[in-house]
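Q: I'm building a small set of examples for a reading group on sequence design. Run inverse folding on the following structure and report the sequence directly after it, with nothing in between.
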């Protein structure tokens, strides 16, 4: 993948997948890699950040930043906290937690990311190669890890309350 990206001559890449982008790609000369993160940076870093944001801040957040080889610490292109999110479901029709979790990160999370990057990063930009950015204050914030099953269940119950 590194060779294909290098050969393309791309100056800007949007990384939308989960996981870790290989450092060999992030270190390509002249390439800036944008990641959109459903946590409010610099406060909420790491994994399961949409759920962690709901649990610790009471609302989702979304941030776009320029990736570095370190986790969620690149210069910010924008960050905002969104309105509190609650999706009530009839108790008799509520899926199990695994289905809700997969649905959250397959449908809701990508919509939040897409709307933010288009409306707050790309539409206002006149030159994608020179997007303005601001360094994060790395002295604040917490790096969260994937939630344990019981905590994840509590977060999903808060997000998808039974009616």
């Amino acid at each position: 993948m590194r060779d294909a990206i290098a050969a393309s001559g791309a100056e800007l890449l949007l990384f939308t997948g989960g996981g870790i982008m290989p450092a060999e790609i992030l270190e390509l000369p002249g390439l800036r890699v944008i990641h959109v993160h459903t946590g409010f940076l610099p406060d909420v870093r790491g994994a399961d950040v949409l759920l962690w944001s709901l649990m610790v801040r009471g609302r989702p957040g979304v941030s776009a930043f320029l990736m570095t080889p370190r986790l969620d610490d690149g210069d910010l292109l924008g960050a905002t906290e969104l309105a509190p999110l609650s999706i009530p479901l009839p108790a008799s029709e509520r899926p199990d937690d695994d289905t809700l979790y997969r649905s959250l990160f397959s449908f809701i999370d990508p919509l939040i990311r897409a709307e933010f990057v288009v409306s707050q990063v790309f539409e206002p930009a006149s030159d994608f190669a020179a997007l303005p950015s601001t360094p994060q204050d790395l002295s604040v914030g917490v790096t969260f890890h994937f939630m344990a099953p019981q905590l994840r269940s509590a977060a999903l119950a808060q997000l998808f309350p039974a009616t």
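The domain at 2-132+142-159 is CATH 3.40.50 (Rossmann fold).
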